[in-house]
Amino acid sequence: MTYCVGILTHQGLVMASDSRTNAGYDQVNLCRKMHTFVEPGERSFCILTSGSLSLTQSVITLLRDEFDAGEGLAKARNFYAAARAVGECVRRVAELDRSALERDEFNFNINLLLGGQIKGEAPQLYLIYPQGNPLSVTRDSPYMQIGEVKYGRPILDRGIEAGATTLEVAAMYALLSFDATMRSNVTVGPPIEMLLYENDALEFDRYRRFKADDPELNVIHRQWERSLRRAVEELPAITFKACLPDTP
């Protein structure tokens, strides 16, 4: 399984992904789900992927071939055009593989997050659906998730404030979102890759890869757990009545 999240703030962008493709009692497979495409000083893109590894690899390969040839993401005139270029590669892979997959009762089930910036525009963040169509974040919903999203969503809903949450604080919320997901679902796990992009940098120079035994990651996990329990203990006591109400 997979969990990826992108958060767009007034200061820049946070992109984070796990590295687990499947997990069982006797086998854990790892693979990177974060991919970058950079023309320094002109454009920087980060793509996070979820779904079938063979399909996402095909999409990234097509995008990389286009980028190296000066096409696709390399020549998109604006970020919406870049999102459309990613969607077009998704559709090309779908044309190649969808019928064979569905014949054997497999779904074409990939989703991608595209974040970054093109010179002259503000940073942006898009979700690319399996059909290739893009959806942009909004001020009211400044983050996107793909993969196993339900466990890590509540902390983001409560904590991320458009126009107020700083880049560093957003990164912490992203880590806590992963912490909640990994606590409840063994199919999501480290290493966790995290990239912070500052407005108008037009390159990626703030990156971390958190392994399972990373000291900072473990300190954050333990301190967050203690703080959460302490906060619950400090809440006002619940008042109970002496007996059950009458029932019909």
UniProtKB/TrEMBL annotation:
Classification via Pfam families: Proteasome (PF00227)
Domain of life: Bacteria
GO CC annotation terms, alphabetical: proteasome core complex
A GO molecular-function annotation: peptidase activity
Transferase among keywords: no
Signal peptide interval: none
Keywords annotated in UniProt: Hydrolase, Protease, Proteasome
GO BP, sorted A to Z: proteolysis involved in protein catabolic process
Record-given protein name: Putative proteasome-type protease
Annotated source species: Acidipila rosea
